[in-house]
Fold each of these.
Amino acid sequence: MNETIENLKSRRSIRKFKDEQISDEDLKTILETGTYAPTARGMQSPKIVVIQNPETIKELSAWNRTFFPVEVPDDLDPFYGAKTLLIVLADGEVPTWKEDGSSVLTVLVNAAHAVGVGSCWIHRAYDEFQSEKGKELLKEWGIPETYEGIGHVVLGYPDMEAPEPLPRKKKEIKDELILLIYIFSGAVTPKISKAFFIVILALSTKINLVSSKSEPITCSDL
Ligand SMILES: Cc1cc2nc3c(=O)[nH]c(=O)nc-3n(C[C@H](O)[C@H](O)[C@H](O)COP(=O)(O)O)c2cc1C
């Protein structure tokens, strides 16, 4: 299998890390790769904040815990003891800030895996940076107050086996039906057959064409 495809498919969230810091070289590679993430119009508004100070990570972990929507134990560490914490922020004044920031996060976790560093995407950054404390941190870090929290990435060398991925949901288009539509459209007039076929295909996806297993095609299946 192509190495990049293999890497994308074998990455899993890692939630237990070795008691050692990741190398500067690995960190640099991960961060630099993150800057190559696609952003709308190549705006590159997202910023990646790197935190390795153990006290600061501890403090931010306790802070993150306060944003869980349910009651959680006081000793729960949402950052899983990781020694490197990345926080991705994006400029709320850019219309695609959420998409751009998520794009960076996705590249970061995959880049980490590619160099043998375990990672996990951690939530609640949006709530954090909506709060007064969040605004103060932005000021402290010299980041404009228009920046919004996208997410965190915890990094470390894995101290656990990568879990098996959940079975993938499948988008199954009823092949026979599509073939029939194609043949039919071709029979009407070969010239417009391809365009007609594409329109039908687009429409059938939009109207949640029932798959061969009679499961509706929904967005979450894509
Ligand atoms: C938007 C988003 C938020 C997430 N937040 C958390 C989180 O707060 N804590 C956590 O342990 N994992 C979090 N994850 C990781 C998911 O739980 C994980 O990706 C999912 O269970 C699939 O597992 P895999 O990453 O091993 O394939 C988050 C993932 C995404 C995309």
Amino acid sequence: MKLGFIGAGNMGSALISACLGNGYPAKDLIVSVNTEASRSRLSTCFAGVQFMSNQQVAAECDVLFLAVKPFIMPIVMQDIAATLQAHPKLIVSVATGLMLDYYAEHLGSDCPVVRAMPNTPVQVGFGFTGLLANQAVQADHKEWVTQLFSQLGDTTWVQTDDAIDQITALSGSGPAYFFYLFDAMHQVAMDMGFDPKTAKHLTLKTVEGALQLSEKSEQSFLQLRQAVTAKRGTTEAALSVLEAGSVQYTFQKAIVAAYNRARVISSEHNK
Ligand SMILES: NC(=O)c1ccc[n+]([C@@H]2O[C@H](COP(=O)([O-])OP(=O)(O)OC[C@H]3O[C@@H](n4cnc5c(N)ncnc54)[C@H](OP(=O)(O)O)[C@@H]3O)[C@@H](O)[C@H]2O)c1
């Protein structure tokens, strides 16, 4: 089976790594990028993969991954539409904001399309990917896609484009929310006199410990928080500052703002 990739930046490269990790030989991977510089870099990272034009990739592959920026997609559609209308094949697109109808309009409704919304931790195998299929996608396609994205972390199938916008705001943008908090703790630790390496280490180990405890415990996040919050203790002192600043409410508003933005982007791209 030949796997085609149009776009091989952050996301496309993670997908190529997953396919290689899943046992697909490099010679069966066909890639299209825009610049000679990327071709040269990628042929070093992924020795043995073939490089072709968008039209050739669409014609030669059995499954096609689309991993270009949404504003590039009209160019790509122009290059591949005729081939896919004549010979529908499974498309897996990671492009943000392009709904299933967008692909049906360009490629025809017989073309099986999966929308995937991964996040950046897919690059290290700890991502979370939301998946949405159109009517033409078969059960065996879904199984294949699930297995592939499982190489990159966890997955969940959703039923609507709107749910993909929600996933975008939660797990898609989510890593940045936590990097924001990690950065705050790292800064304070350094202000207290810890060297940058130790400050980073204690920040990450605290996060990892909280994560492991949350995963292994039967208790809710609220109960876990209460368990470290003794009356008049240090955690209570910290939490009272967070509460006074309405930090939890602001954090929730931030996620809703990301969701609203995802909806606006979707409506702009699907006019
Ligand atoms: N990064 C994320 O966290 C994330 C998460 C979820 C979804 N996404 C979505 O994934 C998609 C890709 O994002 P990315 O971060 O991987 O982008 P990226 O790193 O900028 O990569 C874009 C790729 O598209 C190629 N390309 C540009 N024009 C092309 C053309 N006309 N024909 C063929 N290939 C072309 C580029 O090639 P050159 O390098 O040669 O220009 C590059 O390989 C976007 O739609 C993004 O919204 C990203």
